[in-house]
């Protein structure tokens, strides 16, 4: 089971950037739980975090395969990344844009991390069967 970080916890960023490529290895074509944890911010700024995919770790998708909603405050946001239909994605990486407006310094500052954890197929099967019984 893959359990790692796309962006290490408490990484401090002041501009847009990219995380390191993560090789999914035998976990490719699986479902993952991404967790965006924002631990520190300044006022009047926004953080946008997306995930891009690649078959080889060098040529990246032109559009994100998944994106978190834009964030302005400290928070923890879960998001499912389903790669079961994306057979060519073997590597993923995070991309972020940090934006600031208003008075004071124009340089944004976010302290955050993005965790990646493979979701066990049994959990997905249980959740799908439970959803089917409620319908």
Description:
The protein has 135 residues and is mainly beta. It has one domain: Sandwich (Jelly Rolls). The protein is 10% helix and 48% strand. The chain has one helix and nine strands; from the N terminus they run βββββββββα. It has one helix at residues 121-134, and strands spanning 3-13, 17-18, 22-23, 31-41, 45-54, 66-67, 75-82, 91-100, 110-118. The strands form two sheets. Strands 2, 3, 5, 6 and 8 form a five-stranded antiparallel β-sheet that branches. It is globular and about 50 Å long.
Blueprint of the fold:
Blueprint (H helix, E strand, L loop, with lengths): L2 E11 L3 E2 L3 E2 L7 E11 L3 E10 L11 E2 L7 E8 L8 E10 L9 E9 L2 H14 L1
Antiparallel strand pairs: 1-9, 2-8, 3-8, 4-7, 4-9, 5-6, 5-8
Rg computed from alpha carbons, rounded to a whole number of angstroms: 16 Å
Mean pLDDT across the residues is 92
**Principal-axes shape call:** globular
The name of the CATH architecture is Sandwich
Remind me, CATH topology?
Jelly Rolls
Q: For the record, what CATH class applies?
A: Mainly Beta
* Helix percentage range: 10-25%
Q: Distance N terminus to C terminus?
A: 31 Å
Put simply, the count of helices is 1
Low-confidence segments: none
What fraction strand? Answer: over 45%
Describe the largest sheet: 5 strands, antiparallel
């Amino acid at each position: 089971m893959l359990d790692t970080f796309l962006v290490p916890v408490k990484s401090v960023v002041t501009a847009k950037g990219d995380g390191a490529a993560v090789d999914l290895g035998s976990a490719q074509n699986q479902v993952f739980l991404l967790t965006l944890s924002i631990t520190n911010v300044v006022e009047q700024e926004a953080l946008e975090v997306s995930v891009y995919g690649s078959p080889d770790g060098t040529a990246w998708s032109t559009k994100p395969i998944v994106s978190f909603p834009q964030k302005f405050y400290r928070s923890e946001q879960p998001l499912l990344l389903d790669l079961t239909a994306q057979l060519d994605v073997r590597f993923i990486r995070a991309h972020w844009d940090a934006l600031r407006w208003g008075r004071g310094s124009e340089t944004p500052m976010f302290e955050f991390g993005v965790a990646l954890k493979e979701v066990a197929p049994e959990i997905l099967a249980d959740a799908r069967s439970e959803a089917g019984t409620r319908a």
